[in-house]
Structure formats: C-alpha cells, structure tokens
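Consider the following assembly input.
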Amino acid sequence: GAGVSQTPSNKVTEKGKYVELRCDPISGHTALYWYRQSLGQGPEFLIYFQGTGAADDSGLPNDRFFAVRPEGSVSTLKIQRTERGDSAVYLCASSSLGGGTDTQYFGPGTRLTVL
Amino acid sequence: GQQVMQIPQYQHVQEGEDFTTYCNSSTTLSNIQWYKQRPGGHPVFLIQLVKSGEVKKQKRLTFQFGEAKKNSSLHITATQTTDVGTYFCAGVYNQGGKLIFGQGTELSVKP
C-alpha cells in the first residue's frame, strides 16, 4: 500500500477483555515500531521489530502486552486483561531498514478505549 | 536516562508572529528528529539532525542541533494558519531506531 495502515481505527472494549491491534507497514519496510500516545503526550515507544524478530521490546509496560510479526510484514499488538489505563492511541510506524537515522512513517493509529 | 524535555507545552500566536520550541536531553543524542501532528492526525516526519551544531532550513522553518548534541530547537518565521498543530522532537540515543519523544508543543495561530 501507499502508507502504513492500522486496523481497527477505533476499538472499544471492557476491562479484562483481550484485544488485538493490526499494523500493515509500507511494502518492503523491514523495520516496524509500535508506540502508544495518551492525550496531550508524545508517543511512547513500545517495541521495535527488525524483520520477524523483536530487536527492542524495552517499552512494553508489562507482560499483558505482546507483539508478533511472524512473516516480517504485518504485525499484531496483543493486550491481555485490558485495564482502563491502557486507553490510548496505538501508533505503528515502519522504516525501510531500521536504525537510528532511518525515517519512520506513522500510520493513522488505533484508538483503544477500555471501559 | 533517556528522556527528552520539550517546552513550551502550548504557544498561542497571532498570524505573522514567530514561534520557537525547544528540546533538551540530559545525555548526548545520536540524532534528533522533528515531527508535526495535526489535530486528529498522526505524526509526520519533518527533518532529522545528525551533526553537532547542524542547522537546517525548510522554507520558514529553521531547525538547530546544539554543539553538545543535547538540545535542539525549531523556529518558525511569520507563522501562518497552516502551521497549526503539535510539534514534537524525538531523540535517538543509539543506532536501534527507538524514538524518545518530547511532550510536544501545541501551536495555535490566530488569523
């Protein structure tokens, strides 16, 4: 596709439920990043994939959060036992090679609301 | 630690006035990137600064990277209503690509 796409655009769930958020990176991009953004704040890093492997998962807040990228393209962010504090916009970004000087292109985000 | 502080949080200007936002890190950065986020939108890459003391310009926007690679600024000359949005700096501390974002400066421009 022309840009990074994310589905769903909005997700409302109840406390304690399980959710999956999907990211489709720009075709051919080997690096994929997940961030989350709370209202009035800058995006907060969660995890970075280089190909199929998680190169840096230091931003995942706890073991309820997990992400996969099995074929090195689409990625899924999984959140178990959701809590109200998980409510935020979850942003995905991709870059062609990864690394500190590579431009990251962001998707439109998934707005997660936990009731 | 890896933290980027950005000020001010909000800036309200009259169209035609200048605008500046500042970012500071307590430790040396590998590089710093700037993004713009329109209301309801996602961050859009503006520019990257890599070298100590680097200055880059994009039309009315001037970006600077400090000599010690710990601070940066974005200056907009003669703001226009199209400049409205939140401007974020994002620091990179190593070659891994993880971006550490500042809190952002929300710019509003009164016509």
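Chain A touches chain B at residues 31, 33, 35, 40-45, 48, 55-56, 58-59, 91, 95, 98-109 (CB under 8 Å). Ask yourself how this observation constrains the way the partners meet.
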